[in-house]
Amino acid sequence: xxxxxxxxxxxxxxxxxxxxxxxxxxxxxxxxxxxxxxxxxxxxxxxxxxxxxxxxxxxxxxxxxxxxxxxxxxxxxxxxxxxxxxxxxxxxxxxxxxxxxxxxxxxxxxxxxxxxxxxxxxxxxxxxxxxxxxxxxxxxxxxxxxxxxxxxx
Length: 153
Ligand SMILES: [Zn+2]
Description:
The protein has helices at residues 64-78, 84-105, 132-147, and strands spanning 3-7, 15-20, 23-30, 41-45, 57-61, 118-120, 126-128. The strands form two sheets. A five-stranded antiparallel β-sheet has the order 1-2-3-4-5. A two-stranded antiparallel ribbon has the order 6-7. The model has no long low-confidence stretch (mean pLDDT 92). The longest helix has 22 residues, at 84-105. Helix content is 35%, strand content 23%. The protein is of the alpha+beta class and 153 residues long. The chain binds zinc ion. Zinc ion binds at residues 121, 123, 125, 138, 141.
């Protein structure tokens, strides 16, 4: 499988995302805010999640062509060390981010974003405080503790 590059739109500095199949494995771009005497191009090779941050490589180069050549050298060394599971980890993360975006676009909340109505009664039972039938028997337990100056967590 070959690497391919996609130019990013709407970015101030020329930036290319490098893909290996469907996986975004790195970036080549003009470095922001460096003196004109310094190498103008930078690259980073590797992806996350799937790879450890220390496995990733990066460098600088005088031209796009040099940056591309250095990137490809780094990638050829890196590729044999990568398992299909690493790529799948990246794909899974992208898929779940897309799923979260869709849920938010529908104006819905994720289960983790909905405040929990579950409470633990001093008697040890966990119940739904929004459900009157479930919470009623425990009110007496909670009031009894509060009357004694206790704290309900
Ligand atoms: Zn109770």
